[in-house]
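Appendix B. One record, verbatim.
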Amino acid sequence: MGDPLTLRPYGARAVLVELPDAATRRALTGWLASIDHPTVAVIPAELTVLLDVSDLSIKEADAQQELRLVTRDLAHLDLEALPAADATDSKLVTVDVRYDGPDLETVAGQLAMSADALIRWHTSTPWTVEFLGFMPGFGYLTRDDHDQQVERRHSPRSAIPAGSVGFAGHYSAVYPRSSPGGWQLVGHTDQVMFDLTCGGAATAPNDRVQFRSVR
């Protein structure tokens, strides 16, 4: 963990916390989940956490007071003393994948392995949901042993099918619905990753995703 956090106003009902690295963001997100401020939503991204009181039934003055209480605690927080995030007790979601994506060989080549080795590696251990973004239910997944960047496509596709499993940068992900995109696609799943009638997103930050190869 490096430099201290930075707090920035983000409209009348939110504060943006900027952090020096992903490990600090993970630890801070865990700490925020442990404190008692139920009206404040905690929304992590790659190097930020948004603290948001979006419930409009709460008066703006009360929302700002709640944010002041949280940010007061943050201002005196010792980031170095926060325990590292631990995903081992989080929810595990199994996602069955047909590894027949059009970019399977490309991704394997970028990671210096065969297509079969890529499939074995991708399914060998769970991935962690770092945060949700881009579209509802789109979880950015990481693993400690995925430290090599995968290049995005030079020409993005105009429509990626829902359920596509892909790579970009040091993330893997499942597209919850059809969308344009430049991620490299290695497979496809029938797993529903976002459904408002069933509670919304299938995963949340710090959940784990276990991919499983199926024919």
